[in-house]
Each structure stands twice: as structure tokens, then as C-alpha cells.
Structure prediction request, 503 residues.
Amino acid sequence: MNKSLNMTHRPPYGILAVLMIGTFITFLNNTLLNIALPSIMEDLDIDTATVQWLTTVFMLVSGVLIPTTAFLFQKFSVRQLFLAAMSIFAFGTIIAGSTDFFSILLIGRILQAAGAAIMMPVLMNVMLVSFPIEKRGAAMGVFGLIIMFAPAIGPTLSGWIIEHYHWRMLFHFITPIAIVVILIGFFSLKDKKDKTNIKLDLFSLLLSSIGFGGLLFGFSSAGSKGWNSALVYMPLIIGVISLIWFILRQTKQELPMLNFRVFKYPMFSLSATITIVLNMAMFSGFLLLPIYVQTIRGISPLDTGLLLLPGAILMAIMSPLIGRLFDKFGGRMLAIIGLIITTITTYYFSKLTFTTPYNYLVFLHAVRMLGISMVMMPVSTNGLNQLPASLYPHGTAMNNTINQVSAAIGTALLVTAMSTYSKSYTAQLTEEALKTAPEAGMAEIHGEIAMKAMLEGINYTFFLSTVIACFALLLSFFIKRALQEEDQFAGKTSKKKSTRKLA
Prediction:
């Protein structure tokens, strides 16, 4: 274990501050480029399918690297991992901001994603070993502020920069910040790592990369390619086979790269299930709301970003408070209330019209984000609390991998649902229009039909998200406050059942 991160001493607030700043700017880049894609398409003369790889590759690289972070955290010190991750990220940022070629820009994004994939698990592991369980909620609340607030303000910040500057400024303004953070970390991080003989199983790494990468690529491509495309079902089939092989290999190893025994702990398994279900519902807002606002309502990218901003600010304010409430009351009450809020607001989003007021959308989105913030971090922290300390790296790596995969699956299923329903509704409206309008006049109302069908498709998909959120709500009633268990898989005697009902 890192010597300076022992829980019996005062938490290393200096180390945590440096790690949080680094994690914030790496997470900011996750959504910073979304609004800039049209400008990049025009400047580099590329099509939509090509430019989309700038966001897809970020998720793919993260999904491939995150499973290895459990090994990295056991092998290297926080200082080594931080400097390596931030240096890779900064190098990728410099490359991406100084090229005129899409292929080089894509390489820059890959390097950014590699750095970001390492930073978040490092910060989460340091927080888990630095705070006792009774104070961990408040600490993880601050962590939640970073992982939710940074991506949420990305579109707003990006919209403002694109409106006033060239898209390359999205990288140029991050570069000096990243360099300063690296310098601060170089001089302030002094933790030492005990020598370990653990070695990376390269075949496990290969299976993990193909497995998680195949799933992420397949589901990410489903929205644009369709489920009948070989580029969708072949990666999914190969990914599933590789992932099963990977899991079986890990269960037979004494020191697995990613320890699936974390699912032996009931509260961790329950938290993982709720996270998967909620992620699938949550991404309906992130995905569908910008489509509705910009495509159907014709609202500018900057105003779209501003619409999302109050929700991000509310989450930032509430995350530390929710963390303290978690320490006091546990995760069940917060999860139930949060999922009730999420379910109700998602249902109201299924009632959108062509004239839904802008301020109403701002309010509804903000309340929905409040509900989500009451669920994600408390549920995740409660699950991690039951794990023995030796499984923290594996638990955080598993959580982060689950987030990536479930987000990809949710996005693919929602896009498919929206497209299928919109096509069906288009055919229905066209058939009705032909009965009342001459065929020659159909061209005039074709655009109107397309917009109406898209709106109904969005509403239908939000309704499906409501049903998914209801399922997560039912699961939340089974949450119990988790107490840490000893490692029963390391030859130690496990404590008695380590869950107790909420007071």
C-alpha cells in the first residue's frame, strides 16, 4: 500500500487536491468536443460518421484501459500513476490542438482518453483508503462533484468558446492548466510504493481489450449503422466470447487482473445492478434533450449549453451535502427519493411539444439532475464500503467499466428505440396525409411530418427511460447500509454478515 495514504493518519488533503484538479480537467474533455463537431467537420472537410469517432474513441479507450487500473494501482505509486496519466493527457492535448489532419487529431484524443482513464480510478482509490467508512460519504460527495459537474459544464463552455474563438482553443486553453498541474504534482506528491512482484497477464489484457472494446464499439455503432450491420453484431459476438473467456480466466487466477469476486459481496452487486439500470435511463436526457432542443426547436448550441448549466450547478452544490447525508442516513433513503425524482421528471420529459417553454426545460432538467445526483454516488459508495481494502482497486475498476459499458448499451438501445418509433410514426403520418392531400403537395408537408415523427420518437424513448428508472427504484428498496468485510478470499475468516438495517 502507498505509505502516505494510510487511513489511520490524517487524510492527505494536499494529494487529494492535486488529484481532483487533474481529474476535473481530464473529465471536462469527455464532453467538451461535442458541440464543436460541426465546426471540425467544416474545417477538416469530413463527414458526420468520421467526426463522431472523436467522441466514440474516448469511450472505447477508457473502456479498454479502465479494467487494467486495478493492476496499475497495485503495481505503481500514486505519484507515478498521476505523472504518467497527466503527461499522456497533456501530450495528447498539445497534439490535438496543433494539427490540421483528422488522423493526428484522433491520435491526440486517444492519448487524452488514456490519461483520463487512469486518473479517475487513482483518485477514487486514494479517497477510499484515506477516509474511514463513517466519513467516506462526504469525501465521495466531493468526488461526485467532479465526475458529474465537469462533463455537465463541457457543452456550455464549449458553446461559448466556439462562438467566440476557433475550435482549437478547446485544446489550447486546457494545455497550460495541464502543465501547471503536472508541475504541482511533481513537487507535491511524495508517496512511496512498497515493492510488489505482481505481473500483468498479457493474455488477460488482450481478452479484456477485445471483450470490452468489442461491446463498446458494437453498441456505439448500433445507433448509426443499425443492428443488422456486420460492424455491429460481429464486434458484439466477438466481445461477448472474449469477455466470457476473460472472466473464466480471472476466476482461476490467484492474482487476477480484474477480480470478479467483488460480486460475491451482495451490496456491491446490488449497487452495480442499480448503476447499470440507471445509466441506461440517465443517458436519455444527455442524448435526447440536445437533439430536441437544437434539431426540433432550432435553439443555438450556446443556449443549449446554458439550458444544461443550472442542472450542473445544482449537482455541484448538492454533491457534498448528499455525501454528508449518506454518512448520516445511509444510501437507501437517498436512492429511493432520488429515483422517485428521476422517474417523475423523466416521465414529464416524455410529454414534450413544439412549444414547450425554454424555462420549463431548464427547471425540469435541473430537478432531474438533482435526483440523479442523490443516487449515483451514494449507491456506488455503499457498494464499495462492503469490500475489503484489498479489493478496492478491483471494485473501482469494475464500477468504472460498468459505467462505460452500460452508457454505451443505454445509448444504443435508446437511439434504436427512437429511430424505430420515428420511422413507424412517419409511415403512419404519411399514409394519413395521402388520404387528405394530393400527392403533388406531399413535398410541402414532408418536413413537418419528419419533425413530428422525431418529436414522438423522443417522447416514446423518454417513456421507455421512465420504465427503466422505475425498475431501478424497485431495486433501491433492497439497499442496506454496508460495513466493511475482511477478505475471505485471502485465507482470512470473514466477519459475520456485514450489513445492518438503517436506523
